[in-house]
Amino acid sequence: MTRRLALRADLLDFTGDPGLSTVDSPAVRFDPDCWLLIEDGRIAGRTREQPGEDWDQRDFSGRLLMPGFIDTHVHCPQLDVIASHGEALLPWLERYVFPAEHRFEEAAAARDGANRFLDLLLAHGTTSAVVFPTVHKVSVDALFEAAVGHGMRLVTGKVLMNRFVPDYLSDDVEGAEADCIELIERWHGKGRAAYALTPRFAPTSTPEQLHMAGKLLARYPGTYMHTHVAENMDEVRWVAEIFPEARSYLDVYAAHGLLNERSVLAHGIWLDDADRRLLAETGAHVAHCPTSNLFLGSGLLDWVKLQDAGVGVSLATDVGAGTTLSMVRTLAEAYKVQALQGVKLTAWKALYAATLGAARALRLDSEIGSLEPGATADLAVWDWAHGPLAQHRDRLTRHLHERVFAWMTLGDERNLVSAWVAGTERWARG
Ligand code: GUN
Ligand code: ZN
Hints:
Elements (H helix, E strand, L loop, with lengths): L3 E11 L13 E12 L2 E6 L8 E12 L1 E7 L13 H14 L4 H17 L2 E7 L4 H14 L2 E4 L2 E2 L12 H15 L5 E7 L7 H13 L4 E6 L3 H10 L6 H7 L7 E5 L5 H10 L2 E4 L1 H6 L7 H7 L3 E3 L11 H13 L7 H8 L1 H6 L17 E4 L5 H9 L3 H11 L5 E6 L2 E5 L2
Parallel strand pairs: 1-4, 5-6, 6-7, 7-9, 8-9, 9-10, 10-11, 11-12, 12-13
Antiparallel strand pairs: 1-2, 2-3, 4-14, 14-15, 15-16
The chain binds guanine and zinc ion.
């Protein structure tokens, strides 16, 4: 029998790219006080009329319902070191991150960590993610198993790193290749799981290991490539030293066959015009991590140049360099990063980058990121305002963009009312 569910709320999603700074965008679809219809976990349509008794009904009227957020770059094991003081990227990795990732070599720690992580994503309204586990195979199995348990769409894969890291985190080319093949065959394309070849970043893989990753990316259709690029100026200088033949940092990945339409590159702050052209040509995209970039003092993303070059940009928390799992807070910080450069990012563009824009960049827009019929019902329901200040401001808003912008600037995970994965409520406040 068909499982029928109807949710009443103010429905908001996007039908296209709203552009960076256009407040009056036709790509915004807003249906206040409307019923979203869901059949067998997929969106079936919407109606203003109350559906009949053959529909399970949940009334969230007066609240905001959107597609669940997609966090395109976040590190599961780094929950343990979020908010660690005093270092920029490279010493921060050595001092805090590597010891924390060591703990995930134990299967029990990896499983606990993975379940805590996915519980917390849902508690922040994030229903899909592209995730760094650790170099350990058990950390990948733990994440995929936890994602099955949560019903969530997840992209992840064993971290590759075979030099300039502590021995306890170092793999090698042959062992890593065998692990990747085993994990791809076990998980890739099973249910909502997709595998990502995941070199940590160029400096910590030998050219042989990067070549191996590129070979597997080509051999297994639909796999992703997930890494970091051009985040920090010391990092960029280091890459230039150890890859003297490369034209740029990004070029290291290109030279090893690692750029295609399923490549997710976190940060992309210190790119040049040729890099941006290469990203556009290959269909690779940048996961923008504003709270991380501010916290580590890495720099400010030039979103205008990426947009003008035709490069996709999604939004990501990058915990534990990022300071929150909340994509709402991340939207607000993305606005500030553009404000520092004189750009007026709209709430529309920020939200698009965290929903449909991310789904498009991941080539998953038929499944996630919108309220379009046929999409999986991965949803989040939000209070328009939490607490007396936000409620006061909300009452004074005069048009939709003003209201949504105040929501994203003042809101956070406390606004979340419930989170749904494939039409099942997986998290509810209280
Ligand atoms: N570059 C290489 N590894 C990392 C990491 O764990 N976090 C961030 N922010 N950048 C990186
Ligand atoms: Zn990262």
